[in-house]
Structures are given as C-alpha cells and as structure tokens.
C-alpha cells in the first residue's frame, strides 16, 4: 500500500547524529556515445570479372585493355570521392548541432568537462545543531548539506531544510568551496514553501566563483545530468545519470499541499546532496537536488531552476517571497464541444470557487467557468496555470473562459495582488 506524505521521501540532508552511515554499492556502467560511422559506397572488382576481361566489341590490343582499365579505375576514384562528399554534406544537414541539449559530440570526458565547469562554485555546508540529549547538558552536533554560489560577493543557494536549525539563531554556517577555502556565513533568507534558502558568506573581500544558470524548461527525458555535492559528508562527490521525468508533480509524491513540479533523475542523490546543483553537460545548473524516494535507489528529485530562480530573485530583493493572489480554486477537466483531435483532448480548468472580493471576482469569473486559455496559450495542465500567473504580484493576464449555459467564449483580464495571508 502506498504511503502518502513526507514519510515516503527522505530529505537529502545528512545529520551526523541522526543516522548511521549506509554503504551503498552499484555496478552501473556508463558508455559514452561515439560518433556514428556511415558506410561508404566503394567500387570493387568482381572475382568473376577480372580487369583483363574488360574489352571493346572489337578485338582490343593489350595497350587498349590497359588504357580501359586505367580509365575505369580513374572513374571509380572520382565516383568514390564524389560519394564521400555527398555523405559528408548529408551528415552536416542531418546531424543536430553539438551541445548538451542535443546529446551530440559526447566523448570520453563529457562528464568530466561538465564537472570541471561547475565544480568551482559548489559549496559544502556545515550547520551546528544544539539539542538536549539529557536533562541539563545541551548537546551539539553537525548537519551537512550542499549549495552553489550565485554571486561573487557570497550569496549561496541551498535548501531551506539544510539550514532550518539556524533560522532565527545566531549560529554561524560554515561554507567550504571545492578549492578548500572555508568561509563563515549566516542565513540570508528562506522560503520554506519551496524549500529554497540563501546564505550570505563573509568573503573578506575575496571574489567567489559563480555558477552558470541554465534553463530547466529545455530539459528532455533521457538527457544526461550530473549531481554535485557532499553526500554523507563526502565533499566534492560527483554522480551522473539521466533525466527520468521533467515535471513530476508533488502530488504524485504525496506532497498534497503543493502544486510544485520536480525533475526526477537516477543520478544518485543521498543525504548531504540537498541544496547542491544538478547540472547539464554544459556545466549549467538546471536544478537544485532536494530529496529522494526512501527505500529506493535511482529515484531522486530536484527543484527546477526556472521556478527556483523566481524565488531566489525575490529573496535577494525582499528577503521573502511576495506571492500573487487571484482568489480561485480549480481542477483540470476535459472540455466537451471543442473538437478534440485523435492525438490530444481539449482540457481546461474548471473554476470550483471564487473568493469574495478577490481579483478573480472583480474580473467577472464565476464558479462553473472553464478556463481554456491564458494569455493566448491553451491550458494543458496545472503547470500552465501556475507558470502564467507567475510568482510576481500586480501582473495582468488575459483568460478565455467557457461559461455553462451561454455556449460562448469570453475573454477577461485578471490582475493578481500580493498575497498577505502568510505562509
């Protein structure tokens, strides 16, 4: 029986005092793809038709036969060269451009090159935890996680659960870079709803290496990714795998109070990897390693960097997240009467409730309306709605709805406001 909730998921943070070290072994082999080899059409001589048998209808002299043979060989060489050029030209047209997103140009060091590009900005994070093991004497332990640098002056991204014990406390957080440099830092800001946090490092005038940020929206299932971090406190650890799914809903993982989506990967993500970067083969951060499915190997999850970076930008600016409020509750439904094709069914968002005085009510939305388009784009799922609404308030977007009983489509503008209801 499937168990729901966080008990199925293990946050990838290592607490030295909480769990014993588990030794895991694997025998997975990764084989780099080599460049495809195309067969070349070549001229060859049939065993039953030796060159000396080539002759004209007239009785050719030995000199004539030799001349004919040379001409045939010359023609064959010309045809072979032309055929090779044609194949090369065809290759140039059909092969995709090089790069991680296209999966071409992989060689012996394709993972090592990605690691070399990303590793300098990866941070090992150590947090001191105070708890009372006995009645009188407080006990101190350490918890480790991972992160990555996003600014030269020392802003580091990690998971909120990595630094949860330091929120509101004066306990310093220790950050160690790949090159061995150690810095002290403090929690800058936290968003527990998305599990994203920022640390401010005391750089003492030093410039830190900065991670390159990619686009998680361009990821495809089967694409190579690399996880960097400090699993079980083992700093500078690299694991590699593929993208297993690009948009795994939180509700599928038992996270019932979130509409978040996650990147699923079989790159090993273990306790201590939390907050570390998941990078593509260009060394660009495409996700934040966050959790794994408990009692399973090869099922880890990362927060997509596209959505995470919207949170990060607000944390940098406001030290909190100002979420948009529209005042709607809805669910995905199949819409009848919109001429669905054989390949796809037309879907929309059925409005279940409109809050009194909300932006949705002011725009004219009613219970029972079906939203079929937002800003001219068809609604395909919950992710489309949250993406269009975004994470910035005071934004106006156009919605096309079908109203029951009227049989017509209407377009209305909705302007979100800042959600002041708290977490």
Secondary structure: elements and pairs:
Layout: E1 9-11, E2 14-15, H1 62-94, H2 110-118, E3 122-132, E4 138-149, E5 155-158, E6 173-177, E7 182-191, E8 196-201, E9 224-229, E10 237-249, E11 261-265, E12 277-279, E13 285-293, E14 300-304, H3 305-318, E15 324-325, E16 328-334, E17 347-354, H4 359-363, E18 370-374, E19 377-378, H5 382-389, E20 396-402, E21 409-415, E22 417-418
Antiparallel strand pairs: 1-13, 2-4, 3-4, 3-6, 4-5, 5-8, 6-7, 7-8, 9-10, 9-12, 10-11, 11-14, 12-13, 13-14, 15-22, 16-17, 17-18, 18-19, 18-20, 20-21
Jot down its keywords:
423 residues; alpha+beta; six-stranded antiparallel β-barrel; 5 helices; 16% helix; globular
Characterise the protein shown here:
With 423 residues, this protein is an alpha+beta fold. It contains five helices and 22 strands. The strands form four sheets. Strands 9-10-11-14-13-12 form a six-stranded antiparallel barrel. The chain has a six-stranded antiparallel β-barrel with strand order 3-4-5-8-7-6.
Work out the radius of gyration: 30 Å
Unreliable spans: 1-8, 15-65, 90-99
Structural class: alpha+beta
Largest sheet geometry = 6 strands, antiparallel, barrel
Instruction: Give the CA-CA distance, first to last residue.
Output: 31 Å
Q: List the total number of helices.
A: 5
Q: Give the strand order, joined by hyphens, for the main sheet.
A: 9-10-11-14-13-12
Question: Roughly what percent helix?
Answer: 10-25%
Q: How are helices and strands ordered from N to C? A: EEHHEEEEEEEEEEEEHEEEHEEHEEE
């Amino acid at each position: 029986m499937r168990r729901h909730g966080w008990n199925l998921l293990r946050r990838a943070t290592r607490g030295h005092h909480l769990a014993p070290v588990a030794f895991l072994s694997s025998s997975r082999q990764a084989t780099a793809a080599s460049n495809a080899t195309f067969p070349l059409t070549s001229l060859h001589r049939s065993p039953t038709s030796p060159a000396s048998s080539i002759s004209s209808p007239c009785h050719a002299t030995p000199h004539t036969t030799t001349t004919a043979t040379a001409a045939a060989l010359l023609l064959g060489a010309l045809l072979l060269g032309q055929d090779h050029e044609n194949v090369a030209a065809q290759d140039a047209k059909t092969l995709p451009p090089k790069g991680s997103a296209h999966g071409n140009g992989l060689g012996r060091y394709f993972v090592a090159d990605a690691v070399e590009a990303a590793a300098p900005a990866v941070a090992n994070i150590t947090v001191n935890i105070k708890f009372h093991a006995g009645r009188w004497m407080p006990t101190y332990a350490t918890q480790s996680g991972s992160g990555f640098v996003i600014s030269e002056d020392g802003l580091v991204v990690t998971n909120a659960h990595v630094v949860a014990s330091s929120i509101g406390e004066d306990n310093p957080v220790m950050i160690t870079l790949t090159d061995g440099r150690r810095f002290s830092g403090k929690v800058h800001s936290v968003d527990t709803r998305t599990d994203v946090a920022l640390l401010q490092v005391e750089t003492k005038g030093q410039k830190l290496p900065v991670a390159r940020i990619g686009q998680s929206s361009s990821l495809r299932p089967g694409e190579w990714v690399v996880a960097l971090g400090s699993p079980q406190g083992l700093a500078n650890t690299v694991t590699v795998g593929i993208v297993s799914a690009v948009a795994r809903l939180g509700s599928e993982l038992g996270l019932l109070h979130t509409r978040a989506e996650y990147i699923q990967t079989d790159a090993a993500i273990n306790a201590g990897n939390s907050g570390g970067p998941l990078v593509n083969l260009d060394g660009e951060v495409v996700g934040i390693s966050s959790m794994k499915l408990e009692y399973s190997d090869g099922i880890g999850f990362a927060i997509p960097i596209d959505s995470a970076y919207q949170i990060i930008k607000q944390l940098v600016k406001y030290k909190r997240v100002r979420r948009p409020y529209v005042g709607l509750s809805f669910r995905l439904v199949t819409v009848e009467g919109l001429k669905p094709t054989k390949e796809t069914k037309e879907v929309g968002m059925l409005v279940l409730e409109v809050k009194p005085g909300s932006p949705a009510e002011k725009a004219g939305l009613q219970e029972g309306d079906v939203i079929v388009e937002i800003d001219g784009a068809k609604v395909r799922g919950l992710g489309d709605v949250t993406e269009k609404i975004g994470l910035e308030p005071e934004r106006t977007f156009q919605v096309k709805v079908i109203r029951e009983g009227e049989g017509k489509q209407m377009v209305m503008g909705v302007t979100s406001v800042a959600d002041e209801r708290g977490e």
